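Good morning N.,

You mentioned wanting to compare the apo and holo forms, so I went ahead and generated the holo version with magnesium ion. This is what I fed in:
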Amino acid sequence: MSMAIAHYQSEFERLGALLPWQGSSQWQLWRQEGLAHFAAQGFPSTRQEEWKYTSLTALEKLALSCAPGDSAPPVWESLEGHVLLPRARHRLVFVDGVFQPALSRLESLPPGVRVRPLSAVPAQDSAPLQAQLQAIRSRTPFTALNAAFMTEGVWVSASPGACLDEPMMVLYVTTGGGRAHHLVNAYDLGAGACLTVVEQYLGLAQDPYFVNQVTGVQLAAGAQLTHLKLQQEGARSYHIGALQAVQQGDSRLESHAFALSGAFGRNDLETALHEPGAAVVMNGLYRVNGREFQDFHTCIRHESPDCTSDEYFKGVLDGSGRAVFNGKIVVAQDAQHTASRQSNHNLLLSDQAEVDTKPQLEIFADDVKCSHGATVGQLDEDQWFYLRSRGLESDHARALLIEAFALELLSGIGDTGLRAAMDQLLRGRSHG
Amino acid sequence: MLIIKDLHASVGDKPILKGINLTVKAGEVHAIMGPNGSGKSTLSNVLAGRENVTVTSGSIDYLGHDLLALEVEERAREGVFLAFQYPVEIPGVGNVYLLKAALNAQRKHRGLPELDAMDFLALVKDKMKLMEMSESMLYRAVNEGFSGGEKKRNEILQMAVLEPRLAILDETDSGLDIDALKVVANGVNSLRHPERSMILVTHYQRLLDYIKPDYVHVLAGGRIVRSGGPELAHELEKQGYAWVGDGQSGQEVSSGS
Ligand SMILES: Nc1ncnc2c1ncn2[C@@H]1O[C@H](COP(=O)(O)OP(=O)(O)OP(=O)(O)O)[C@@H](O)[C@H]1O
Ligand SMILES: [Mg+2]
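and this is what came out, ligand included:
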């Protein structure tokens, strides 16, 4: 047995009794199963197809504590400048895996919308959450590890027709190294309910740490979720995330994932278009520089007729950065009239940077419209020359073009406030 | 203002300019005509500093400086402006942003304070009136989705805002309808100034009816094979280029002034 497995097993022995809801035998079972699953598989190796370009050996060697942090949380004033929507009226803030009531606020939620940090959910109310997490179909060693250790996160449920009409912020801040944080987000939207949520992962720690998060999404008929994930992790961080959604008839998921910084990132984003008329927009941006690494594995399952998927990922690769994009689309045999588009465009800014991009289409229906395309290119010389010929500094011109490349993705964000906030963030300065 | 001496330049291994001599004095307008592929845009690009054109020999003196020693952006700030034959579209970069950044880069270079948003907008709107452009174009991305004619107007708008010392207009007239041609010509004429020189690259006499050049040159096969006054353009219009030769015959013609 590997050292890493032994380490997490001993962490479980050390902490098991302190984990949430351990009074409940269902949760005990749940966690033990997770641990067993993880122990059986261990850390994936690059011999496995899904992890071919993604080496975990450095993470495996870290003996990280799975207990939440205990240092004093920062004050809001010191965080505010980093927060995507600092004035959001609904926000939950977690620091080093611990919920911070003093930094959070939940004003006047509309009837039918419930927002709770996991730590505020008593054991007797937690069964529906488990049921929801049970629906997560694809288990990886990391979702299993998450099941064993999950300590905090957010659970939002909206009853049929209930809508939160402004974006909600969920902020996970990491201030110290040496720990693994196992976080869970669950969004459960009843028929016709709607929600816009931002999950921002902000790493202020210089030392190595590990965020292992799972987001589960259930969209009943006609429900609409806009989910924006923002990764701004620390210089020596590891971030592994999974989003798993199940969509019923005519529901709509708009998923935007921005991996802007962090030493190592891996995201597995998956949705099942389970009933007719379901639609998904799955967009993302990865940006690597220095020796950073980002990996997006996406999977869209067309399981019913008349569903649409629109996937657009872009990559900006500089320095010795590396990235992976693997976009899987599965169209089941009876998913006729599927309309699916996928594109992945990469901007390679240095000779040392590298990207591996691969569409993976598995189409079993015959009456479908599926398109895909991937490009890897450099900065457009003509555009660069044009800007410089107007007197702009060469670096300024370059930065503008890189920004422009990334900004194009924002047109897919429906919420105007959110789009504006991302626009400002990606520009990194105010435009006159 | 500008003294080009025996300029040779290649793109890749292919020699394109084969000994250009041209002197342009302050306040003068020179027209350069010549067959397709003769090197007119290449010459324009060399002046603006395009890196994919290699100058193999010769010199360019601009206001007493060695122009070839300056970076692209330095040339622009020193007052060299190229209105492109094919202005590139730059999605994601705002037209108004570029105008302001360009103007302020130049002002900074000259030790002038940057213009604030209000003064800048007032200036630009004034120039847009001159170019008969709708203000909405300011808020679009640079040239994105602009019609051919709109792109050309936008080039002259930039020129009007930047007020260069040496403007090179590469086929600014092509693709313009008659009314637009008048507007553009009017814009260019309003910028004529004793301290400002212009090089107009064109295929058509029509533009020169509106913007009267002091000299007309014919560039063929990478050389200036004929120079003369405005009447030369009329002759070309009537007779085509066959009679001026292809520039390979080695005939040297002294350039204007
Ligand atoms: N990047 C390039 N690669 C290869 N050849 C080039 C390149 N740029 C220019 N040339 C060649 O150089 C020659 C001169 O081109 P240039 O664009 O300067 O002509 P021009 O006189 O402006 O023509 P036109 O009137 O059609 O605009 C042409 O034969 C052209 O094919
Ligand atoms: Mg040309």
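The interface with chain A takes residues 48-52, 71-73, 75-77, 81-82, 84, 87-88, 90-94, 97-98, 100-102, 105-106, 109, 117, 120, 141-142, 158, 162 of chain B (CB under 8 Å).

Happy to go through it together on a call whenever suits you.

Best,
F.
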